[in-house]
Write a structure and sequence with these properties.
10 strands; 396 residues; four-stranded mixed β-sheet; 13 helices; alpha+beta
């Protein structure tokens, strides 16, 4: 973009006043240039070195209270970290799970669970990167999920199936949502669901099967099968039957963080395409001089800036302990749309070069396309706003 470095820095300070975090994350990301992420993507690998560096620098412990070895920061700061990773050309999808899963454990876990687990997450001894919610037959209709957890003595026995469960192969712990009271026995369908902390290695040896799902993006995701998996009662998070309410803590955080990542992607695409169209000469003039090129880029940039404001609002509400479902959903919708439009403009105006792996655009193009669908589709966000904000009749 045309702002000079000093002006850009002043602008960042005015917009969210987290320049110290931005500078530090940018410095770390500079050690992992495009070539690194391109190589990992080509091999369909996991950026172990990058995630380890984030952990050692303390960024993956941002949301862990200081009493447990973390930084004690809020979702506002966590979102800045995720944004900067994507803005630098990386993909926060490799590590963002620990951020939003952390909020569920911090806010709803017992003191014993926090003392036992959080310090190990802060140090990097353990990773909590996975959340098991979605199922093949229910999708985002979460209250209808079929996975059950039946109490037997001092243990719960888990049976069922999950799909699109990411980072299982690179995580030690997973948060799992299962039904502990049959749907037919509850007054409200959101009741009777509970959340558990699952030790992934132990589970894989005693009743949980993991089947990787190759996909368009280098996003490690899996289908899980539970066959009489036993987990100890002390791994129940919070009160039995209230898991749906608890899981919303993580889901709202997830949507705000995804919005931040899309905003980072949007700035990355805008920076790349502005630089290219300013230099690319066709018919004796820079192609960026043409309004047909300028307008889509300008429109995408305007939408990125607007989405950024909604992201900040959602994060501030979350950190204040206020309801933020509408704001988190709107931020995710606006940011995903803006980043996708910026991606389209970037690949379009690079022409054939946009499809060449060495330019990294096709990689980032694939990555940002995911967020039109996940972690919640744009249509479901529109349905949520229509019903819960505008008061329109429920459409499903």
């Amino acid at each position: 973009m045309s702002r000079d470095p000093e002006e850009a820095q002043v602008y960042d300070q005015i917009s969210d006043d987290h320049q110290d975090i931005r500078d530090a994350v940018r410095a770390l990301c500079a050690s992992f240039p495009d070539e690194y992420h391109r190589r990992i993507d080509a091999a369909r690998g996991y950026p172990e070195e990058f995630v380890d560096a984030l952990t050692k620098a303390g960024w993956m412990a941002a949301l862990i209270p200081e009493d447990y070895g973390g930084s004690g920061l809020g979702l506002t700061e966590a979102a800045v970290i995720m944004e900067e990773i994507n803005r630098a050309g990386g993909n926060s999808g490799a590590c963002h799970g620990q951020m939003y899963n952390m909020t569920t454990l911090v806010r709803h876990g017992s003191e014993e669970q926090r003392q036992r687990i959080l310090p190990k997450l802060a140090s990097g001894e353990l990773r909590l990167q996975s959340m098991g919610v979605t199922e093949p037959t229910t999708g985002t209709d979460t209250t209808q999920l079929k996975t059950t957890a039946v109490r037997k003595g001092d243990r719960y026995v888990i049976n069922g199936q999950k799909v699109w469960i990411s980072r299982v192969q690179h995580s030690d712990l997973m948060i799992l949502l299962a039904r502990t009271t049959p749907l037919s026995e509850v007054k409200k369908k959101s009741e009777g669901l509970s959340i558990f902390l699952v030790d992934i290695r132990q589970a894989m040896a005693s009743g949980m099967e993991v089947r990787p799902i190759p996909n368009m993006v280098n996003h490690e995701t899996n289908e899980l099968f539970f066959d009489n998996l036993e987990i100890p009662m002390e791994n129940l998070i919070g009160e039995e039957g209230k898991g749906f309410k608890y899981i919303l803590t993580g889901l709202n955080a997830e949507r705000a963080l995804i919005a931040a990542e899309c905003i980072g992607d949007g700035y990355w695409f805008t920076d790349r395409v502005v630089r290219y169209v300013s230099e690319r000469q066709v018919f004796g003039r820079a192609i960026g001089q043409n309004q047909g090129v300028q307008f889509p880029i300008a429109e995408a940039y305007i939408e990125i800036e607007a989405a950024n404001l909604m992201r900040q609002k959602a994060c501030r509400l979350y950190d204040a302990g206020q309801p933020c479902g509408a704001e988190a959903n709107m931020a995710k919708y606006l940011a995903a749309k803006a980043s996708w439009e910026a991606a389209n403009a970037c690949i379009q105006f690079h022409g054939g070069f946009g499809f060449a792996c060495e330019y990294d655009i096709e990689r980032k193009f694939r990555e940002t396309r995911l967020y039109q669908v996940a972690p919640i589709s744009t249509n479901l966000i529109l349905s949520y706003i229509a019903e819960h904000v505008l008061g329109l009749p429920r459409s499903f």
